[in-house]
TrEMBL record:
Basic and acidic residues bias locations: 235-250, 274-286
Compartments in which it is found: Membrane
GO-annotated cellular components: membrane
Protein's UniProt name: PQ loop repeat protein
Region feature (Disordered): 234-286
Keyword vocabulary terms for this entry: Membrane, Transmembrane, Transmembrane helix
InterPro entries according to UniProt: LAAT-1, PQ-loop_rpt
PANTHER family: PQ-LOOP REPEAT-CONTAINING PROTEIN, SEVEN TRANSMEMBRANE PROTEIN 1-RELATED
Membrane topology per record: Multi-pass membrane protein
Superkingdom of source: Eukaryota
Membrane-crossing residue ranges in chain numbering: 26-45, 87-111, 117-138, 150-172, 178-201
Length: 286
């Protein structure tokens, strides 16, 4: 299988966007973790076969950038303390390094003896993890009815071009690497799907966004107004079961508090006051 050809710095725009906006909503943390994890078998694959130095360094740079982005999702989305997320990130990196070292020491002698199957299996696992990392964004897309949020377009474009040119390089070779071709084709197709979904969403919401801009509002403002007033909105964000249950519980709590606060003195039996001084005054008058 051909080595991974993603541009090592393609994640820098995404990391910068996460840091600048201080939020990672719409960027699945599992996507970044799977991509970081795929760096382990890709590193084993390239080092064990003694590829040239740039190809050996590339998967490790990619893994490091993915781990940084994953730690950002812990801090900005899951609201972890920076020190806690950093410690977890370093611990995961050390674990990955230990596993990769052990695999290289185990598989390299086998490869040198002409046994290619173990390395081939490692390559398949790496390719599967890389492709699987592009599936979680589709859950976010479904949730937002086609809208793509939180993913930097420069990062996605660079990643797509990396996969596309890698595929073209395979086509230009004397022998076509089927496994590598499948990997790069899947990556290109999944990323084109992400682009297409957002473009379709923009076409469907063009009038809404135009009217909102005329009022000095955003699409999110319009969606929030519909939700607050209880008016159905075609492009409202789909809520998970957990969010729906939490909303119902909050509504029940508010109703209980309003009922108790609104009744006042009438909340006592027959609407009678429980103030001792008032009760005493009333008895004297009688």
């Amino acid at each position: 299988m051909a080595p991974q050809e993603n541009i090592p710095i393609d994640l820098v725009p995404q990391i910068w966007t996460n840091w600048r906006t201080k939020k990672t909503e719409g960027l699945p943390g599992i996507m970044m973790f799977l991509w970081a994890l795929c760096g382990v078998p890709f590193g084993v694959y390239s080092v064990a076969q003694n590829f040239n130095i740039p190809l050996q360094v590339q998967p490790h740079c990619f893994m490091a950038l993915c781990l940084i982005s994953w730690v950002q999702t812990l801090v900005y989305h899951r609201k972890w303390a920076v020190w806690k997320a950093s410690v977890v990130g370093v611990a995961v990196a050390c674990t990955f390094a230990g596993v990769e070292t052990a695999l290289i020491l185990t598989l390299r002698p086998l490869y040198d003896d002409g046994k290619d199957v173990p390395i081939f299996v490692v390559g398949v696992i790496a390719a599967a993890l890389l492709a699987a990392g592009l599936l979680p964004p589709y859950g976010e897309i479904w949730k937002r009815r086609g809208r793509v949020v939180g993913i930097n377009w420069i990062f996605l474009s660079m990643d797509w071009f990396g996969a596309f040119f890698s595929l073209m390089a395979l086509v230009a070779q004397n022998t076509f690497d089927i496994l590598g071709g499948i990997l790069y084709t899947l990556c290109c197709a999944l990323e084109v799907g992400i682009f297409s979904s957002h473009l379709i969403w923009m076409a469907h919401t063009r009038k809404i966004r135009k009217d909102a801009a005329a009022q000095g509002k955003t699409f999110d403002d319009i969606a929030a107004e519909h939700e607050a007033s209880g008016i159905p909105f075609k492009f409202a964000e789909r809520k998970s079961r957990k969010d729906r249950v939490s909303k119902v519980e909050d509504a029940g709590t508010d109703d209980t508090e309003n009922s108790a606060g609104g009744n006042g003195s009438a909340g006592t039996p027959l609407g009678r006051s429980t103030d001792p001084e008032r009760i005493t005054t009333t008895k004297q008058e009688q």
